[in-house]
Amino acid sequence: MVLHLDKNFKPVSAKEIEYESFTFAGGEPHIKIKPDFDKQEAVTITHRLNSFNDLGLLCIAVDALRRLQVEISDLVIPYFPAARQDRVMVQGEPLSVKVYADIINSLGFKKVVVFDAHSEVTPALVQNCQVIPNHQFIRQVIEKIGTSVKLISPDGGALKKIYKVSEALGGIEVVECSKSRNVKTGQLLNFKVYVDNLAGENCLIVDDICDGGGTFIGLAQELKKKNAGKLYLAVSHGIFSKGFTELSQHFEHIFTTNSIKELNDNCLTQIEFKL
User: Cα–Cα distance between 39 and 83 in angstroms, integer?
Assistant: First the structure.
């Protein structure tokens, strides 16, 4: 059995539990699970946690199921909230990823499935965590754009994962890049591409998250200075908080999944996340 807490997001195929959910005028999420299902079967819960309200709905759904004496097995949350807040950069900030992890751990899932975790901090903090790598997603992207492409690692944090992607895809060449960030202002600086001449080769930047897109715009400009051919971008989790207008000026096409939300733009292909 499966309980899809976002009815537009169904990454697991199984018999669905019906329910109604709403938010009270005071801001509290609420759920009413229809009890006419086989309570002898273990239940998997899926959700897209984009706010504390989403997390609240998850918590009360777990309570409701347990009051029905149902065994809850797995949680599927492809995008782990606050995964980027995995270290304290300046005094006075929280370690946000640990706050989310502690709450989810308290719910006692047998397995928590996350897609393309931002760093090794999330699976270290989340009990019984299973990380699904981005290999199959990037494989589908390569099938659409062709194998004559170089994989671009945007920074040092992505290096370990992108070499694993390269290995999974048969050894596609990797080009390493770097940038720096002012931790107080967030300003991105000093983009570097560690190759002399790309000689017109097409390039696919691979990363886990795109928020405003500043990293990828800055990197695209440097890649063009090194004579790159067509530029493509593939990110597992697409926020795109500043839209696609500027990104589309630099990239032939952009690829992401529906791990956060549904998106629609001519420059974008969204690949459905499925287990």
Answer: 34
Over the Cα atoms of the chain, what is R_g? 20
Q: Which of 149, 139, 99 is nearest to 252 (CA)?
A: 149
**Same-domain pairing of 127 and 237:** no
Domain that holds residue 244: 135-271
* Contact present, 203 and 223 (Cβ < 8 Å): yes
- Whether residue 232 is found in the same domain as residue 141: yes
Q: For 59-87, what is each residue's pLDDT tens digit?
A: 999 999 999 999 999 999 999 999 999 99
**Residue 101's domain is classified under what CATH number?**
3.40.50.2020
